[in-house]
Every structure is written in structure tokens, then in C-alpha cells.
Amino acid sequence: MSQQNQVIFNGRYELHRRLGRGGMAEVYLARDQLLDRPVAVKVLFPALATDAGFVERFRREAQAAANLQHPNIVSVFDWGEANGTYFIVMEYVEGLTLAETLRDEGRLHPDRAAEITADIAAALGFAHRNGVVHRDVKPGNVLLTRDGGVKVADFGIARAISDSSDQNLTKTGSVMGTATYFSPEQARGAPVDPRSDLYSLGVVLYEMITGRPPFAGDSAVAIAYKHVQENPVPPRRIDPSLPETLEAITLKTLAKNPANRYPTAQDLRADLRRFLDGNRILAEPVLAPPVDPGATGVMAPTMYGNETALVAGPVGYQQRDGYGDYDEYYDEQEQQPKRSKWFLAALILLLLILAGLLYLLATNIGGGGDDPPQVEVPNVVGKPVDQATAELEALGLEVETASESSEQPANQVIKQDPPATTEVDEGSTVTLTFSSGPEAVPVPDVVGMPADEASRILTDAGFLPNQVPVESDDVEEGLVVTQTPGAGELLAVNNQVTIEVSSGAGTAPIPDVRNQSEATARSTLQGQGFTNIQSRQEASAEIAAGNVIGTDPAAGTQARRGDPVTLVVSTGAERVTVPPVQGLSEQNARSALEGAGLEVRVENQTVQNQAQDGIVITQSPSGNAQVNRGDTVTIFVGDFQGGPTTEEPN
Asked: Measuring CA to CA, which of 112, 374, 390, 598 is 20 to 30 A from 613?
């Protein structure tokens, strides 16, 4: 973008170069001229600016993201309309996307993959608690900073969970996102909730540790079909050296049934931290429920994205793109082998005979007594303890409970014994361990530290730092001024700690103190917050001695309150000695008087002696008198008019 064609939005954001292009907007590196800092500006395609639905979605992106202030979320600063389109101003993050990193470096070390996933989960958990589901979690929306930080970007298709006034922005059956990272419910066009983001994050984790996503295909339809119908290949079959615990965490996030995934992003993050710390994790193998092929709903096409429509038909999934249908993915009639009626009848008879023999054998071995009925223990981990107890008791099981502190919400079941899917006798006891809530730990002391270091320490301690800029005359810019809660106070992990970060001394206009006494002027400046006050003296004929002539910097100048301000104090008019000029020519007399800083007034005086013509006869004030610099001295200059002379004849 050449200098002469430089685009500036709203007279403030100067676009420099394009950073990338998405499904509905382009992103540019820009400079915020007001704050003199680099920013990223997302500009909606002009063709979409005339579509009220897309404009509304774009507006929602700005409003939703602007409310998400978190260390792992790209901040949104501003949004507006310019040049016939709309734009969003975001934090500029130096670094690469996770997609670029995977492309350039291949799969990641399991520990690094777990760390990145934990940071993404922290960002998603914060968004979910504020009512926002991302709905497009993928490596291209994860930024890795140069210092190893992780930031989630592009809440472009996020929708507030609590927002019921959709205005048809997300119609039933409509799908947004990227097929490779779809959750099964997204692929079916069903409603999504925070657990859909966890599935997509599980796809990202799977790709980071294996080097490839769990499902691939020739089209978006084929990939979406696999998300709904197929289970992923366990990561350890691809690489047996991968930790079993990390595989368990990954497969739990990829459960088809949302109820079998982690209940919240905080739970996923906590299990990843346990894995990294070498502690026992909560993830257990999850049996996927049977999938009904006919349950797949409609995935409607969008106008401008890469999404493709899925349609559930009598013979399976077909792809519609306006150019005809692709071949069916399956045919139920072809999948069922043809058998003759006689063969089936014989097979059924043999099975009945075998069942009878087994019954007789069991009766003889057991002495003819009746065994208690068997019950399959359901999975109640992640449910409220009261709900889990009622569910187990309804199956004829006894329940015992115990509590322990954990990062899971209070009263949520975190362990069960026996585990899910175990067959037990009716009336058996199931022990439930539920969370008493996160253990409260002391808040670290971060006052006086650089903001970045303070945020890292708080994050490592399990807290969510919230930076708030404040003006401070006493604390250096960028250092923490105060923290809430204070150092040493007990606080449950995953709670927010607010740190006020000094933005330096505030600026204010220097007040006008001219003609005030020095003491009054000092008091006026101090009242405006200026404390570094100096003074120097200077003569002035207009300002009385002891009063202020002016300030340096001048009145009205914006200055930091800690900057020095100098008062220029009058010593009164300067006194000078009048040079004696009687007997000098008018020109010489004028030069002498003006050189002493005096004004000169000339009056002619008639003389009879031609030798006195043009000579100063007398002056007022007289020579050697003390007067103020700038005063006027009158000189009387001889003026010979002709006639008799007083000179003696030769």
C-alpha cells in the first residue's frame, strides 16, 4: 500500500499491509495514530457490507470479543464503519499461528501440546463463563507469541449462549466453522454449547500429538460424516510412545456424546495440568453410544464460507453444491448379506437350543438358586452429586459419598467406584467422590513487579490476572501499583486477581499564574498535581518585583505531573546609570544613551554660537543619574539660526 494511497480509517487507523484473509474479512497490520501503537484491523469484504445478516454477525463479533479481556484471548479495542464497509481493531500479536507452526515444524512434543491446549482451554473457559461459545476452534485461530504465549483469536462466528434474539443469524440446521474441526453436533446442524468447543479443541490436540487430524476426506461432507459416524484411531496406535494418560484425555474430548466429554473447559485444563505434573488424571475410557445414521440433520450452506450442505436422505448422505449429487456413502440394503429363509430358521433354532443348555448348566452349578439381577453402572462423573445419587438409586443401587477438594465446581462428582459400564448385583454400593471446590491458596505478592511477570506468576499459581491501567505519580510505568485480593489472602484457584498497572504520571495543562506572587503561584501549581516546582529571577518593567512573569513550559502546555515546572519571578525594572552626553554631537549622544538601554528624546535649543550647532547643550536626567532601564532621557541640541557670533575676531 503506497504512501500516497495510504488508507486511514476514522482518521486514526493507518493501514500498512495485509496479514491474512478469512472467510468474510481481511486482516491488516495498521498503526493507531492516536496511541502510536501497532494494531490489527479486520475489514469486512465490501460485498458483504451490503448483507444485513453478515453486518450484524460482524457487529456481534466486536461486542462479544470486546468483553473478553483475558491473557489468552486477543483483545478487541474498537470497531466502526468506513469507506463503505465495517472494521474491527484488535491487538496485534507478533508470532505464528499454530497452523503455521504445525506446517513448518510437524507434530509437537506431548508436553508442549498439553501446555498449549491448557492455555486454549483457559481462554475458552473464560469465554464460556461470559456466555460466549467460540464455535470455530482450529489451529489457524490460535496464535503463538514469540515468548511462547498462547492467544485465541477470531470470535467471528461466536454467539452469546444467553442471547435469545437471534434474528435468524443462526437458523436451525445452519452450520458455521471448519469441517476438519467440527463437533458431531455442529455437523448435524444441532444446537451447540461449550462442550462443542472442547471437541474441536480435542481435534486440535490430536493433530498436535499425531501430526494429523483424526478425520480426513475428499470433501467437507465426507469429513463431517466421519465426525458423526466414526471413532478416531487412538493416538497410541499411530505412535506407541505417546503417554497413555494424554491419549485418554484426547479421546475423552473427542467423545461423540457431549455428556461423555469434560463438563467444562476448566475441567479439561485441570486434567492437562495433572498430566503435566505427573499426577493421576480423571479421564477414563468412554464408550461411545450407538449412532443413528438417520439422526443427522441438515447442514445448510452459507453464502460466503467454505461450508458445504449435508442432507439426510433415505440412502445416506449426499453432497449438494448446485452441480448435482455425489454417490451415496452407504446403502443399507447392500450392507446386509442375503440369507435364505431356511438358513435363518435353522440358525435361530440352534441358538435357542444352545441358550437352553446354558441355562440348565447354570442352574445345576448354582444349586438351583436365583442369582440377583445385574445392573450396569452408568457414568455419573461430572454430574451434580444429588443428580448422580438419584440416578443410581433409581437403578436399585446403594450410594455412599465422600468429598475432596479439586478444581472442579463444588458438589460435582469427580470419581466413582465401581467405574462406569461395570456389571454389579442390584443393591450393590457405588461410592461417589464429589468436589468440595477448589482449594484456597495464598495469592502471590506481585506489587512492584513488571505487569507481564506479575501475570505469569498469578497464572502459574492458578489465578486469572486482570490488568487495569492507572495513573501513578510514584510508581514507574509498567509496574504493578496494587492488587486485589491482597498478597497472602486465601483465594480458590481459577478466580480473578485484579492488578492495577501504572501507566505513569498523568498529564495536565500547566495553569496560568502570571502576575501572581511566587507563593500563590506555587500553591496553584501544586493544586493541579505539579510538585516538581523550581524558580528563577528576571527583571521586568511590567511585572512588580516578587510576582511571576510566566512559567517554563508555558501556561496551557500538557505536562506530566512529575515533570519540572519553572516559575520566572520578577525582580522589578532594571536600574541603569545615565551616561553624561553634554558636549557630544547628537548622533554620539543618542548612541551612548541607547546603548545603556534608555530611550532618547531630542529637543532643539537656539544658540548664538555656530560652534554649538548640533551639540548637546544639556540633558535631563543629568549624567550619572540612576534610572530604570527603558526610561527616556531628553537631550537639548544646539540650533544655530545665523546672525552675530560670540567668537573673538582675529
From this structure: 598
Containing 602, the helix (H) or strand (E) segment is: strand 599-607
Q: Which three cell numbers stand for residue 404?
A: 475432596
The answer to whether the beta carbons of residues 605 and 556 sit under 8 Å apart is: no
Domain identity same for 14 and 118: no
Nearest CA to 200 out of 188, 218, 186, 219 is that of: 186
pLDDT at residue 407, as a whole number = 67
Is residue 452 annotated as a catalytic residue, yes or no? Answer: no
Q: Per-residue pLDDT for 135 more than 80?
A: yes
Which runs of consecutive H residues, i.e. helices, occur in 20-96?
Answer: 46-49, 52-66
Please tell me whether residues 557 and 583 are part of one structural domain. no
Tens digits of residue pLDDT in 405-429: 776 778 889 899 998 888 888 889 9
| 359 membership: H or E segment, kind and range | helix 341-365
With a cut of 70, say whether residue 51 has pLDDT above it. Answer: yes
Residue 405 lies in a domain: yes
Angle at 197 between CA 94 and CA 193, to 5 degrees: 140
Cβ proximity of 98 and 482 under 8 Å: no
Task: Say which residues have a Cβ less than 8 Å from residue 643's Cβ, sequence separation at least 6.
Answer: 608
- How far is residue 424's CA from residue 292's CA, in Å, rounded to a whole number? 28
**For position 359, what pLDDT does the model report?**
60
C-alpha cell at 6: 495510504
Are residue 240 and residue 107 in the same domain, yes or no? yes
C-alpha cell at 360: 440348565
The verdict on residue 451 lying in a domain is yes
In a domain, 61, yes or no: yes
CA angle (509 as vertex; 504, 515 as ends), nearest 5: 135
Average pLDDT of the residues of the chain: 81
Burial of 516 (0-12, 13-18, 19+ CB in 10 A): middle
Dig out the grid coordinates for 188 from the structure: 448435524
pLDDT, tens digit, 9 for 90 and up, residues 478-489: 899 999 999 999
Q: Positive or negative CA dihedral for 110, 114, 115, 116?
A: positive
Identify the domain boundary among 250, 268, 295: 295
180 with 278, same domain?
yes
Q: Which of 119, 136, 197, 267 is catalytic?
A: 136
CA atoms within 13 A on the CB side of 400: 7
* Beta strand 533-538 pairing with 565-570: parallel
Say if residues 200 and 224 touch (Cβ distance below 8 Å).
Answer: no
Q: Are residues 70 and 105 in the same domain?
A: no
Tell me: do 133 and 278 sit in the same domain: yes
Cell of 596: 545603556
